[in-house]
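User: Can you write out an input/output pair for a complex, sequences first and structure second?

Assistant: Here is one pair. Inputs:
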Amino acid sequence: MEVATLHNMPYNTGWIEVVCGCMYSGKTEELIRRLRRAQIAKQKVMIFKPRIDNRYSADQIVSHSEQALPSTVVDKPIEILALAKDAQVVGVDECQFFTYDIVQVCEELASQGKRVIVAGLDQDYRGKPFEPIPQLLALAEYITKTLAICMVCGNPADRTQRITDQHERVVVGARGVYEARCRKCFVPPTAD
Ligand code: ADP
Ligand code: MG
Ligand code: ZN
């Protein structure tokens, strides 16, 4: 459920929205869409991403469809608290690359009355829940699961298939490293 579709809009309070799904499912596009609309509403918006995600740009969040918004790179979630002091709306992309402290930071920001919108992968390349997204899902008021298109059969896809032979949990990459797959076409890695 997306907050903007509700008739009963939150008033005078903060909250957390999570946008999660596999790679290419449109998480960053959806985050950008919500943040742009907040900017149009003249709200003060700040956007953060972890330093590890340097695929396209150091100072922007960028979708696979090449939409972009300026962002601030942080090493540790705790930095967001000070940087977002004056923001009304806080966006965080690639949340799965942050440590668990991101959960406490999002809770604190929402308690301060801010709208917090986080996006991230909900499963790793093995199809296992990707912390800290499950924790954020449990604590968020509004959650959205985005689906991609399965590159094998064209069905809605919720898994990220790694198509290289690498076994670290975090291998940053996109085309040529990962593709979206549905439940039926996803092949879990065998070596680990
Ligand atoms: P995410 O942040 O979830 O990885 P993005 O918002 O960056 O996704 O990109 C979504 C865009 O990726 C889509 O609008 C589409 O243009 C493109 N795309 C590429 N491959 C796929 C796929 N298999 N399924 C859906 N969209 C795809
Ligand atoms: Mg993304
Ligand atoms: Zn499929």
